[in-house]
Amino acid sequence: MTQAFVAVLMGSDSDLPTMQATLDILNKFNIKFEAKVTSAHRTPAATHRFVADAEARGCKVFICAAGLAAHLAGAVAGITTRPVIGVPIDCGPLHGQDALLSTVMMPGGVPVATVAIGNAGAKNAGYLAAQMLAVADDSLAQAVFDERAESALAVGKKDAALQELLARQ
């Protein structure tokens, strides 16, 4: 029997500081994951082997991060029907704009769910993977719901503090 997990693929080890936000969210929800550095361009055969093996072992969602040409998410989406989330990395002379376009502009029938450039996108990739897995896991769905409710309460507390500060001025 296989155990569900998320595979987090990075085009370079330099992507890890950004992708740590993804790993943190997955850990927060106790979602099992594997992380790997692999390249759509420099190690395409190894990438293909890993995706096929991960799928056979129970991977339910792939999260792929890359900068510049950012072909990793598209390459993975081309060889699996599992959901693929692309995280454009903020690097290079275009500060991630090229990575965003390379990730989001997929041909019809080969979707990549693309999140924002950089840290916010990496965080949202973790949340999106959790939401995808929560469709078939009621306890995870409740945990995601509870975390969202806690976040809303925190915003309310910040507003109350602001209103108190403004009232004293």
UniProtKB/TrEMBL annotation:
Stored InterPro entries: PurE_ClassI, PurE_dom, PurE_prokaryotes
Top-rank lineage group of the source organism: Bacteria
Reactions catalysed according to its record: 5-carboxyamino-1-(5-phospho-D-ribosyl)imidazole + H(+) = 5-amino-1-(5-phospho-D-ribosyl)imidazole-4-carboxylate
Pathway annotation: Purine metabolism; IMP biosynthesis via de novo pathway; 5-amino-1-(5-phospho-D-ribosyl)imidazole-4-carboxylate from 5-amino-1-(5-phospho-D-ribosyl)imidazole (N5-CAIR route): step 2/2
Enzyme Commission code(s) on record: 5.4.99.18
Domain PurE: 4-155
Residues at which substrate binds: S12, D15, R42
GO molecular function per UniProt: 5-(carboxyamino)imidazole ribonucleotide mutase activity; phosphoribosylaminoimidazole carboxylase activity
Keyword line: Isomerase, Lyase, Purine biosynthesis
Annotated function: Catalyzes the conversion of N5-carboxyaminoimidazole ribonucleotide (N5-CAIR) to 4-carboxy-5-aminoimidazole ribonucleotide (CAIR).
Similarity remark: Belongs to the AIR carboxylase family. Class I subfamily.
Protein name: N5-carboxyaminoimidazole ribonucleotide mutase
